[in-house]
Design brief:
The protein is mainly α. The chain contains five helices and no strands. The protein has one domain. Helix 1 runs antiparallel to helix 2 and helix 2 runs antiparallel to helix 4. Keywords: Membrane, Transmembrane, Transmembrane helix.
């Protein structure tokens, strides 16, 4: 019998992978939250052109690059591994949950690319007017809110799957004991 042929085996087999994926999603989410609550309000109060250049101290690439690489790779790898292991035979919906998480992560990255191309130059432009700077900040904050929702959705899909898997592995007796 293969380790992925039981719910307990599936849980053991994917524990580390899902923990790493959730850590990458948390990293990305907290990076977005930091931008929304700290960085962009700070930039809105500074003169236009105050955002440093690419790869300068404080550049978001330093805190987003690891998560932007890890999250999609881990999400796609989870979907592919679950499909390969035929996890849906053990717990229906397993592959669908991982594919959903991967799709939401991909959508977040797809949204980031035009945001960086359209908004960041305006934040770095010393010749921009105060209104242009504030418009760039609002545009970034709007896209950032959508990215936060996408990351939260991806994490939720993985967590819901892990919860279903854990409940199935524990069996009905453990769930009954929990309710007491």
């Amino acid at each position: 019998m293969h380790d992925a042929d039981t719910t307990a085996g599936l849980l053991r087999r994917y524990r580390t992978h899902t923990a790493a994926l959730l850590a990458a999603l948390a990293w990305w989410g907290f990076g977005n939250l930091y931008e929304a609550v700290v960085l962009l309000p700070l930039l809105a109060g500074l003169p236009p052109g105050s955002l440093g250049g690419t790869a300068s101290p404080g550049d978001p690439v330093f805190y987003f690059a690891p998560a932007a690489v890890a999250a999609p790779v881990l999400a796609l790898a989870l979907a592919l591994r679950l499909r390969r292991d035929r996890a849906d035979r053990v717990l229906p919906g397993s592959t669908r949950a991982a594919v959903l998480a991967a799709a939401l992560v991909a959508a977040g990255i797809a949204l980031t690319v035009p945001m960086v191309g359209l908004v960041v130059p305006g934040l770095r432009d010393a010749a921009a007017s105060r209104e242009e700077l504030l418009a760039a900040v609002v545009l970034w904050e709007s896209g950032n809110a959508v990215r936060l929702l996408l990351v939260a959705g991806a994490a939720s899909a993985v967590l819901r799957w892990r919860l279903r898997l854990t409940e199935a592995a524990l069996g009905p007796a453990a769930r009954t004991a929990e309710r007491r």
